[in-house]
Specification:
alpha+beta; single chain; 135 residues; 6-stranded mixed β-sheet; 6 strands
Length: 135
């Protein structure tokens, strides 16, 4: 994979926060494929299929949802069928000022309009996975 593709993938993942945090739900198609599968079941949310479902949930959550999304630590790994696997870390600032740490497991696909997320699974960062007895 060349550097231009890597840059475009990183930009797509970064754009997610801007689209959702700014309430620009009419731009969801700039980050997701039309047939996106968005799995938030590990954080007690539904598994969504399609842009319309993602847009509807975002609009419904309103002020109860995150007010700021941050993405970091992108690792582009294996190619799959028609895309690539990307893992990243995420932080979500909630309206009550708490931070939630998650891991995004994504598959991005190159569409005619650019790289888009075709599958996203969000998993909470496990506290028990971090050793408390580091020396």
């Amino acid at each position: 994979m060349d550097i231009e593709d890597r840059w475009a993938i990183a930009e797509t993942l970064s754009r997610v926060g801007h689209v959702f945090d700014d309430g620009r739900f009419d731009e969801i198609d700039t980050v997701f494929t039309a047939d996106v599968v968005y799995d938030m079941s590990a954080v007690g949310m539904p598994v969504l299929t399609g842009i319309s479902a993602a847009r509807e949930l975002a609009e419904t959550m309103g002020p109860r949802g995150p007010i700021a999304h941050f993405v970091s630590n992108l690792v582009i790994t294996d190619p799959v069928d028609d895309g690539v696997v990307v893992d990243s870390k995420g932080l979500m600032l909630m309206a009550d000022q708490t931070l939630t740490a998650v891991v995004h497991h994504d598959v991005l696909r190159r569409e005619p309009t650019g790289w888009r997320i075709a599958r996203r699974r969000i998993v909470p960062q496990r506290v028990d996975a971090v050793s408390s007895d580091r020396t």
